[in-house]
């Protein structure tokens, strides 16, 4: 998904090329402001940019753009070439451009998570889970499911901002996927929640995977840009913990993929109620925290 960059006002002609170079390996999609757009809020709402570059004689100041972004709850970084103190960053050299690109990638991560593609990912993942359950039932092979939920998501957003948390979520999804086998699958099924399918894996093997996933979450450090994403937000790095629920099937009380997923979700609820940062197993008398 390309980085969406809006340029307002007059900027040096070579800036566009410098932005593209700073964005490598990501492609850049330059956005042009239609004449029909009314006001800073209309510009941000209609174009949904990942970065706004504000030059001389821009139709709106950085302060106006920042105010409009807060009104519509859109966290978009502002890069000024005209010394506007309300901007997140002022263009000074290559380091500034690289920082702007890092902030733009955070914004893109949030935009991607909120897009229809996110819902499509969940739908495709549930279909895969259903197909794997049918196969497990037919051949009497084990199938386990792990549900992982990032702990205290609302508090993280309050502390660090939505874009930073979505950037962390994107990095976490990749880190989790890197720990799995080729036959396993992972998809985001809700707000800061992932489902991991483990074909041909009995309960004992699922426990090992669950511990590995929980540990990977605890050790992941997401390094966000040094510049502020929102007024009053502290600097990152951002770290988090996860509650993990595990269920296996087919078996008694687990006659469908929906049953299996429900049991794993019940287990993750047990882990969350116990304070988070632990693993709970469906069908056991109590949740078992993992040190």
Characteristic terms for this protein:
elongated; Alpha-Beta Plaits; alpha/beta; 2 domains; 9 helices; disordered C terminus; single chain; 10 strands; 291 residues; Rossmann fold; five-stranded mixed beta sheet; five-stranded parallel beta sheet
Structure description:
By secondary structure, the protein is an alpha/beta fold. It has nine helices and ten strands. The protein has helices at 15-23, 39-47, 62-71, 94-113, 116-139, 153-160, 162-178, 203-219, 257-273; strands at 3-8, 28-31, 51-54, 78-80, 89-90, 143-150, 185-190, 193-199, 242-249, 279-281. The strands form two sheets. It has a five-stranded parallel sheet with strand order 2-1-3-4-5. Strands 7-8-6-9-10 form a five-stranded mixed sheet, with helices on both faces. Helix 1 (15-23) crosses helix 4 (94-113) and helix 6 (153-160) packs across helix 7.
CATH architecture of the largest domain: 2-Layer Sandwich
What would the average pLDDT be, to the nearest integer? 84
* Major sheet strand order: 2-1-3-4-5
Write down the CATH topology of the largest domain.
Alpha-Beta Plaits
Q: What is the 3D form?
A: elongated
Task: Write the CATH homologous superfamily of the largest domain.
Answer: Reverse transcriptase/Diguanylate cyclase domain
Quick synopsis:
With 291 residues, this protein is an alpha/beta fold.
Give the secondary structure arrangement, pairings included.
Elements: E1 3-8, H1 15-23, E2 28-31, H2 39-47, E3 51-54, H3 62-71, E4 78-80, E5 89-90, H4 94-113, H5 116-139, E6 143-150, H6 153-160, H7 162-178, E7 185-190, E8 193-199, H8 203-219, E9 242-249, H9 257-273, E10 279-281
Parallel strand pairs: 1-2, 1-3, 3-4, 4-5, 9-10
Antiparallel strand pairs: 6-8, 6-9, 7-8
């Amino acid at each position: 998904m390309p980085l969406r960059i809006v340029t307002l006002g007059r900027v040096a002609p070579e800036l566009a090329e410098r932005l593209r170079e700073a964005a490598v390996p990501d492609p850049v999609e330059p956005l042009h402001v239609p004449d029909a757009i009314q006001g800073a809020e209309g510009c941000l709402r209609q174009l949904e940019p990942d970065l706004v570059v504000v030059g001389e004689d821009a139709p709106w100041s950085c302060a106006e753009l920042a105010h409009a972004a807060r009104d519509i709850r859109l966290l978009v970084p502002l890069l000024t070439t005209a010394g506007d103190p309300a901007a997140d960053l002022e263009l000074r050299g290559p380091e500034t451009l690289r920082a702007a690109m890092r902030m733009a990638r955070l914004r893109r991560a949030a935009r991607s998570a909120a897009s229809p593609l996110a819902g499509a990912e969940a739908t495709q993942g549930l279909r895969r889970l259903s197909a794997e359950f049918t196969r497990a039932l037919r051949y009497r092979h084990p199938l386990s499911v792990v549900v992982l939920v990032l702990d205290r998501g609302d508090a993280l957003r309050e502390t660090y901002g939505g874009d930073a948390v979505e950037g962390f979520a994107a990095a976490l999804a990749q880190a989790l996927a890197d720990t799995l086998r080729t036959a396993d699958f992972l998809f985001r099924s809700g707000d800061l929640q992932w489902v991991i399918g483990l074909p041909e894996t009995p309960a004992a093997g699922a426990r090992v995977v669950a511990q590995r996933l929980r540990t990977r979450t605890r050790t992941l450090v997401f390094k966000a840009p040094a510049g502020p994403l929102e007024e009053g937000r502290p600097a990152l790095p951002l770290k988090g913990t996860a509650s993990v629920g595990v269920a296996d099937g087919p078996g008694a009380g687990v006659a469908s993929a929906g049953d299996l997923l429900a049991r794993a979700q019940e287990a993750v609820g047990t882990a969350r109620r116990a304070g988070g940062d632990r693993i709970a197993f469906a069908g056991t008398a109590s949740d078992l925290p993992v040190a």
